[in-house]
Write a structure and sequence with these properties.
The chain is an alpha/beta fold. It contains two helices and three strands, in the order E-H-E-H-E. The protein starts with 10 loop residues before the first strand and ends with a strand.
Length: 65
């Protein structure tokens, strides 16, 4: 996380389905001293953009294909 500029007082968006990787990601965020904002993958694009912008997310954690 720190490699991507995540540290204390950072906010990370988390846009993943429930999984083992989600838990690992959240633990990594918390260990870095950051907070996270859960973002539902089924939200419309405008809603996702609004959440990310107003939460001032530094990065968004997703699960790649």
């Amino acid at each position: 996380m720190r490699r991507y500029g995540v540290g204390e007082d950072s906010v990370v968006g988390v846009m993943m389905e429930s999984s083992f990787e989600l838990i690992i990601g959240i633990l990594g965020i918390l260990k870095a001293g950051a907070a996270y904002v859960p973002i539902d993958t089924t939200y419309p694009q405008d809603r996702i953009h609004y959440l990310m912008q107003h939460a001032e997310c530094v990065v968004v954690l997703t699960k790649g294909a």
